[in-house]
Structures are given as structure tokens and as C-alpha cells.
Amino acid sequence: MATIGKYCKAYLVQQFRQFEQWQEGDRSLKEDDILYLQENYVVTDGIFKDENIVFDRVTPEWQNFCQTVLQFEIPAIDLPQLSN
Questions:
Q1: How far, in Å, are 33, 49, 57, 77 from residue 28 at the CA level?
Q2: 53 within 8 A of 82, measured Cβ to Cβ
Q3: Residue 79: inside a domain
């Protein structure tokens, strides 16, 4: 069963291609295709964090690129408290 993470953000393929070590395998993606950067820094072609993975070479360099160039930041999410 597919897993939806707590957070992902959509980017154009051309933005990911700025990363020197970017690889997309055998896929034929266009510059204006949309991919999703997941909370675990894996890139997918859909909102599910464990399906249709395009890029999963999560290194400190990749995380730094995501944070500085793509301005990727996982927001603090306050969940409501359940009352008894």
C-alpha cells in the first residue's frame, strides 16, 4: 500500500537538474514536468513517498542543495490535541 508522508513540495524537473549529481535514470522527463520532493529528500513523480521514485541518492550535498537552492523546509505542523 502506498504511503503518503506528512509533507512534500512540488518542483519543476528543471530545478532538480541544477544539482550536479542529479540522475533520473531511463525516464524521459521534460523541463516543465513536475516532481515531488518528499520529507525524506527522495524525489517521486507523485505524492506518495514510496512509489514512482525518481531520485533517492540522499547525501549531505543533496540535502544542502534542497535547503539552500530549492529553499526546501519542512514546516512545523501543530496537530490539534484530542480531548478525552
A1: 10, 20, 19, 35
A2: no
A3: no
Q: Tell me how many domains the chain contains.
A: 1
Matching residue, cell 519543476: 12
Residue range(s) defining the domain that contains residue 36 = 8-68
1-31 pLDDT, tens digit each: 888 888 999 999 999 999 999 999 888 999 9
Overall pTM surpassing 0.70 (yes/no) = yes
Radius of gyration of the chain (CA): 14
Burial (0-12, 13-18, 19+ Cβ within 10 Å), 55: buried
